[in-house]
Specification:
Blueprint lengths: L1 H13 L5 H24 L15 E9 L2 E5 L3 H9 L2 H23 L13 H21 L4 E8 L4 H13 L1
Parallel strand pairs: 1-3
Antiparallel strand pairs: 1-2
């Protein structure tokens, strides 16, 4: 009986589980993945895909991508055709001009391929004022016409792009 008890006791000791190898490998894997993510975000290229208008219902997003050295603004265009047709004669030429400029800007950005550095806009007060005045003008015409259309700002902030975003936010708060 004593021998049998000793055998059972020995078996229990031999069945212990050691988690150290598993945990050490898991911690190393997490560390390597974190390092790769940081490396890719710092050295990765700027990837912007022009997919057209973004919005829901009658709202259209004026997309602004914030980078360390400026912003790239992607304006909505598609619904401006409809707004132009519904607009009173006195504003129709202005809406047409805005629509044509935005189409030209979008065509220029599409022609750049993946290198959008040439489309970068500096975040100074004059550029921001022009951008916000245009959005306000288009929204005002849509309200006056009774056409359900509203543009809003949609921000995409890239690594080191926080400074550009804060410049825009501070400018909007001052205005």
């Amino acid at each position: 009986m004593k021998q049998r008890y000793r055998k059972l006791k020995q078996r229990d000791n031999s069945l212990t589980v050691d988690l150290f190898p598993f945990l050490s490998i898991l911690i190393c894997l997490v560390g390597v993945l974190a390092f790769l993510q940081i490396l890719m975000s710092v050295t990765g290229s700027r990837k912007i895909e022009l997919v057209g208008d973004v919005g829901e219902g009658y709202k259209a997003a004026y997309q602004i991508f914030c980078f360390q050295d400026g912003i790239i603004a992607v304006p909505p265009v598609e619904r401006l055709y409809q707004l132009e047709r519904k607009t009173a004669e006195r504003w129709r030429q202005d809406v047409n001009e805005i629509r044509r400029e935005r189409n030209d800007d979008r065509a220029y950005m599409t022609g750049l391929g993946k290198n959008y550095d040439d489309a970068m806009i500096k975040t100074n007060d004059e550029n921001l004022s022009n951008l916000l005045d245009e959005i306000d003008f288009v929204n005002g015409i849509a309200r006056e016409t009774g056409f359900q259309y509203e543009e809003f700002l949609l921000f995409g902030i890239y690594p080191d792009g926080g400074r550009s975003y804060h410049k825009i936010r501070d400018f909007i708060n001052r205005s």
